[in-house]
Every structure is written in structure tokens, then in C-alpha cells.
Write a structure and sequence with these properties.
Elements (H helix, E strand, L loop, with lengths): L1 H16 L11 H9 L3 H18 L42 H37 L1 H15 L3 H9 L7 H12 L1 H14 L3 H8 L4 H37 L11 H8 L8 H28 L5
Helix pairs in contact: 2-12, 3-4, 3-12, 4-5, 4-7, 4-8, 4-10, 4-12, 5-8, 6-7, 8-10, 9-10, 10-11, 10-12, 11-12
Amino acid sequence: MPDTIEKATDVTEQAASTPAKKDDKARSLWSDAWGDLRRRPVFVISLFLIVLLIAIAIVPSLFTSADPRAGDLRNHYLTTPSWGHLFQPDWFGYDGQGRSIYARMLYGARASITVGICVTAAVTIIGGITGLIAGYFGGWVDTVVSRITDIFFGIPLLLGSLVILNAFAERTIWTVVFAMTFLGWTQMTRVMRGAVIIAKEADYVTAARALGASTSRIMLRHIVPNAIAPVIVVSTIALGGYIGAEATLSYLGIGLQDPTISWGIDISSAQQVIRTAPHVLFFPAGMLSLTVLAFIMLGDAVRDALDPKLR
């Protein structure tokens, strides 16, 4: 019996002296979310598609040697696509001006994804800052910011962008980004404001104030890291919406203009031959739908991973 007690004591002392493994440390929300995301097929598929689309947007010449602006009327749009000529200019056929649909489909990713990413980054920064200020300080500051947000929120994004873009004689990627950012920041402000109001009532914020932490330190070190999760979710989902909005504006003739290559421009020109050559419309529209779907799927996966209630 004494031997058993001694052995148990030795085991206890050895376990107490053994340092805790890194895996035993408390895991943060972000590490838990990343571990959950890696096991989600939706996240893996959407991330793969987005990485591929971004690669196409950055270096489309790696995927085709055709010039997307070179038109040759000998390449008639009624010609059946050459399905066996993989990655060749005639793979998806030609449009009404004899330009390679495959090449224009690839090069069109640059403008659409650039607009989507830039608008999302801009509205997230602007909305995040205004929402942080309104939610943290409250009072008359919150009232002023909220009323300004309500005014802008009442203007439909597409309708307001149409009015703004009509004021520009030349509409480039950056004018479209400006118009959509000017009206699109309100949603992020509301999301950030609500998250900050909840976060600032937490015990760790009260403790930081009691210890004499400055306002900027409390906001940047304690509130922002714990309030940014819903903003990331909304911005990820909204990115696909901004890409669709850019294509809509270009389709209506108010967004991007030639010589810029855009899926919306190609969809607009394809409507003239949709009855005789539907493939001219199908490919840019399909590429646009796939891109928007990839970002929405990514946003849904991130939302499910960051929201403990959905686990």
C-alpha cells in the first residue's frame, strides 16, 4: 500500500512538473474560426475560386495569348464555339465584333474584381471609423452620425450611382469606385456601431478604464478587435454585391466605358444577338455569376465560423 501511494505521488509530481503543451492554451475566436473554416468544403471551394479569379485578374495573359480588343469580322459570332480548342481564342467563340469571348471573359475579371475590392476596402474603413466613433462616444456624436447615415442610407446605391456617374464625362474604374463608396459606407457604419455598443459594456473595457487606459488605447486595443468580426462578415458578402452592381451600371451604359473591358459591357452588347447566338451572353454572364457566388459563399462560411450561435 505505501508503494502504491509513493507511485501515485511520483506520477502527480511528474505531471505537475511537466510544462503544459501549447495546445492546452486558451484558443481565441480567430483561431477557433480558422480551424472551423478549414473543415468546411464551402469555404475551401469558394477560396479556391477566389484565388483563381484574382490570379486571372492580375495576370490574364497567363491563361490566354489572345488580344481581347482585337476584332476581326471574319470571326463571325454565329460560328459555333470550338469546344475542343481548350484555352484557345476560339474556345468560346467570338462576339459581334469578332473578338475572342474567352479572352474578354478573362480580362473582364480585372475591372470587376478591382472595383469590388476597392469599394469594399473603402466602405469598410470609412464605415468602421464612423461606426466606432458613434458607438463609443454616444450622445450627440452618435445622434449626428446616425442622422447623416440615415440620409445616405435612404438613397438607393444603384440610383444614386447613376446620378453621380452622369456628372463625369469620362467614367473609369476609379470614378465608379468613388460613386459606390460615396453611397455604400452606411451599412458598415451601422454594423460597426452596433458591435461597438455591445463591446464597450464588457467587463474588460470597464477594467481598462479603471486602470487609466486612454480612449485611443481602449478603442484600438480592446473594442476594435472584439467588434470587427461582424464587419468582416458583412464586407465579405457585400464584395460580391459590389461586383454585381458594377456590372449592372456598365450594362446600363453608365458605368465603365470602352476601352475598359467589363463583363457588364459585354453582357450589354450581347443582348443584340441573344436570339441567334446565346453563347455570346452566356459566358460573361456565367463568369459574373460565378464570381459573385464565390464571394457570397465565402462570406456565409466566415459568418458561420465567427458566430458561436451557429456552431
